[in-house]
Amino acid sequence: MPGPLDGINILEFTQIIAAPFGGMLLSDMGANVIKVEPVEGEPWRLHSQFLPKESRTYMGLNRGKKSLPLNLKDPRAVDILKKLVKTIDVVIINARPDVPKNLGIDYETLSTINPHIIYCDNTAFGRKGPDSHRPGYDIVVQAVSGLLAADNKITDGVPQQVSATAVADYGTGIAIAWSICAALFSRERTGKGQKIDTTLLGTALAMQGSFFELDDYTKQTRLDFLEDISTLRKAGIPYETLLKQQQDLSGASSGNTAAFRIYYTTYETSNGVIALGCLSDHLRKKAADAIGLQDPRFDDAYNPESPEMIERIASLQKVAKRKMSSKTTEEWLSIFDIAGVPAGPVRFVQELLDDDQVIANEMVVELEHSLAGKLRMVGPMVQMSETPLKAQSASPALGEHTCEILQNLGYTSKAIEDLKRNRVTY
Prior knowledge:
By secondary structure, the protein is of the alpha/beta class. About 40% of the residues lie in helices and about 15% in strands.
């Protein structure tokens, strides 16, 4: 059965993570995706190469696509694009804000050629405002959006990346695919194409549920905090002191959540590490009973002002660590399964290619790369019963589909060879 986007043609001008990931998700849905790259290959293809012009970073984000290298500064490449755009449903681009117009691949230019195209323009900060001219990568957006500070990871006095995963980039890739699907649905109803703006900043803000304020409850507290932070910054106070100020504010508004952190954390067992994820009192009580903790907060006689109670609660984390280290991860998982406590072992991603749960749910696919041979990787991230998703192919070698694409546009073999010889394409 064909995928939900079977028959949809997509043209990508993308590189690095966010937009290539979005295009790959659409390919899994059955779309025909043509990726336009520089003649030398996009930067992620050239990052940590294990074969000439092949890297794991590129292969993991570009499966199912066709590669068309073009020198977009050459008028002959522009002629190719003008012919190609007439056959295209969707254009995806992520570039510095000034690049699309300079190259003649902006929405205004391409929609004149094909008024029905859906054009997704991904930038770091958006096309308006004082930062619109700036390029931005995941760590920069983590910094300016509050994500980085919210994680509270400090090394040598400064905050660190949220994780090794580019959360703003990958989240934006999902937003790209999601919004394009919605725009295609709208086009089915109205016949109209449109422009979509996605941003790393918008994604990073959307991931933070605390990004709001209540005029009657939290606004003044936030304004007071901003005044304090401004004063401390002008005085050259170290970042860790600023963070403490912010944490004090967050603690005042988050109620008792931090006090129950012992039920939403990781513990070392006798042979590994296990994570607990209890976000309700009902689950916390189950976890306390399963571990064997005497948590006074679950007693009817609990008095939060009692010095004895405060001391007992303060000692709970040490007790929990000691108890958790007395059994294996497998023993604790069995105990928590019986008790109905959300828990799981801490694993390395390399272990998951052979994981029974991953395999049972068909989350791994096997593909054949034209240069690198057989590969196994994560497959489509959702499943659909009537229009199933499919990893159509491995990532393309640079220029693997140049001849096929240009021949479909009417170019002769001789013309294609001339374009290659003159470095218009590869």
